[in-house]
Amino acid sequence: MSRTIYCISGLGTDERIFSKLRPVGYSLKYIPQLLPDSEETIGAYAARLAKFIKEDNAILLGVSFGGILAIEIAKIKPLQKLIIVSGIKSSKELPRWMKVVGTLKLNRVLPVRSYKFTERIDNNRLGITTEEEKELARALRQAADKAHMEWGVNEIFNWRNNWIPDYVFHIHGDKDRIFPVTKVNADYIIKGATHLLVYNRADEVNKCIRKILDME
């Protein structure tokens, strides 16, 4: 049995969001998000990420947009278990407003990056409250690639997937304002947790992961 958990971060983030995640008995291996090629489909992009997984029947964890990518990877690569945190498993769990924006292509004209005048609003939606979290979010936004962000937002809003593998486990916060808990069918719901729970509620996420990995 593999003792490595491969991790995919959310859109506009990197391995720093996993810095407080320490599941006992397992090591984390971060899969870097690559820059998308022009007009690249999410399936083709996921296939490139899958090459970082060097074993069959691996354990894969995806956060937010990383959960969507993890589902796409599962379509082409055998996995032992798939863990989604603060994400969605199918287009049925996508908020209606995102579907409308994607269908009308409004995301093509709306800004997708966080600037100083929207920072407070963005932080509120993500559940960011402490100075440490604010500094991390600011650093991630400054490092984010604009083309990657625009591509990713478009793929999220237009994701159409109905396939959910039977080895997927979902951890979610009941105060998530990006993907509301009322829309998702989560296996583990952490009370009071927001979209950033993998970082600011890491101890509880660790416990959920441990329970998942202990299952036969």
List the helices and strands and how they pair.
Elements: E1 4-8, E2 27-30, H1 42-50, E3 58-63, H2 65-74, E4 79-85, H3 96-104, H4 119-126, H5 131-143, H6 146-157, E5 168-173, E6 188-190, H7 197-200, H8 202-214
Parallel strand pairs: 1-2, 1-3, 3-4, 4-5, 5-6
Explain what you see:
With 216 residues, the protein is an alpha/beta fold. It has a single domain, classed as Rossmann fold (3-Layer(aba) Sandwich). The protein has eight helices and six strands; from the N terminus they run E-E-H-E-H-E-H-H-H-H-E-E-H-H. It has helices at residues 42-50, 65-74, 96-104, 119-126, 131-143, 146-157, 197-200, 202-214, and strands at residues 4-8, 27-30, 58-63, 79-85, 168-173, 188-190. A six-stranded parallel β-sheet has the order 2-1-3-4-5-6, with helices on both faces. Helix 2 (65-74) links the parallel strand 3 and strand 4 (79-85). Helix 1 packs across helix 2. The longest helix is centred in the middle third of the chain and has 13 residues, at 131-143. It starts with a strand and ends with a helix.
Give the CATH superfamily.
Answer: Alpha/Beta hydrolase fold, catalytic domain
Count up the helices: 8
N-C termini distance: 11 Å
Poorly predicted sequence stretches spanning 5 or more consecutive residues: none
Q: What share of the residues lie within helices?
A: 25-40%
Shape category: globular
Task: Give helix and strand order, one letter per element, not per position.
Answer: EEHEHEHHHHEEHH
Mean pLDDT: 92
How many strands appear in the DSSP assignment?
Answer: 6
Domain unit count: 1
The CATH topology, please?
Rossmann fold
* CATH architecture label: 3-Layer(aba) Sandwich
Strand content: 5-15%
Radius of gyration: 16 Å
Name of the top-level CATH class: Alpha Beta
